[in-house]
Amino acid sequence: MKQFALKIHYFSDILVPPEEVTILGDKTVRADRSVSYQCLASNANPAPIIEWSINGQLVSAGVNTSPAKSGRRSFNTAKGDQAVNGWSVSSTLNLDVTGDDSRISLRCQSISRDHLGQTMTATEELEVLVLSKLKSLKYF
Fold it and tell me: Structural domains in the chain?
């Protein structure tokens, strides 16, 4: 009788969306300035990917992202209570505001994918008002 070696691969990753996605930054900015916005996605598993959109257009230029291990998070599943070590990700968007802009719509999306390709997303949006340069007024 032939014997076969059987290998079993067990993936313990549990797909967990971030507890919170937050954009930090000014809601009002002046034209012709550079500003930075930070997106924080906290306690997700696995570490999420952060995507930024400006006025509906996906951007990658001027984006710097860094993941860090965060604390354990408990949640209910079909198998009972589970606890996982979560990841927190911080992403910074550097943006040059022009005088052509009057409003800027920012969107930060956190995407978590497991080993099977399943995804979970969480999104935060921020509307930014752009103040134009004030022209000097002459009084007569």
Answer: 20-131 (2.60.40.10)
